[in-house]
């Protein structure tokens, strides 16, 4: 449910941010940051339940995503979205580079 809740919260934040992307909107800032963080935390729980590998980096990404609320409150929703893209994209890049070539641990469950 956290994954779906995160998607809904993120969509709500995007809808609010579209109205005025250059002016800080507190509700949009909170929905954007916590929507992404909730989504990632839901994926962490999913990976933990299925035993699909380490979750440390994803936990860091979730915390950093939640912290982007500061950007949204101080600067703008557009800047917050940019920060979220950089954090999630950078985390995905780091995670993909940290696995050895041919590692399919995300694709196959171990016995």
Question: How would you sum up this structure in a few lines?
Answer:
The protein is mainly alpha-helical. The chain contains five helices and no strands.
Structure description:
By secondary structure, this protein is mostly helical. The protein has one domain. It has helices at residues 2-19, 26-50, 56-67, 69-74, 77-98. Mean pLDDT is 90; it is low at 107-111.
How would a textbook summarize the main sheet?
A: none
Structural class comes to mainly alpha
Low-confidence residue ranges: 107-111
Q: What is the percentage of strand-forming residues? A: under 5%
Main attributes of the structure:
111 residues, mainly alpha, disordered C terminus
Topology, pairings included?
Elements: H1 2-19, H2 26-50, H3 56-67, H4 69-74, H5 77-98
């Amino acid at each position: 449910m956290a994954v779906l809740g995160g998607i809904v919260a993120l969509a709500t934040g995007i809808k609010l941010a579209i109205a005025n992307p250059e002016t800080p909107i507190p509700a949009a800032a909170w929905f954007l940051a916590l929507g992404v963080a909730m989504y990632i935390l839901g994926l962490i729980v999913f990976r933990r339940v299925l035993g699909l590998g380490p979750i440390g980096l994803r936990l860091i990404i979730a915390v950093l995503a939640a912290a982007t609320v500061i950007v949204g409150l101080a600067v703008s929703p557009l800047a917050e979205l940019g920060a979220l893209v950089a954090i999630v994209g950078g985390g995905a890049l780091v995670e993909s580079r940290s696995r050895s070539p041919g590692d399919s641990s995300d694709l196959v469950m171990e016995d």
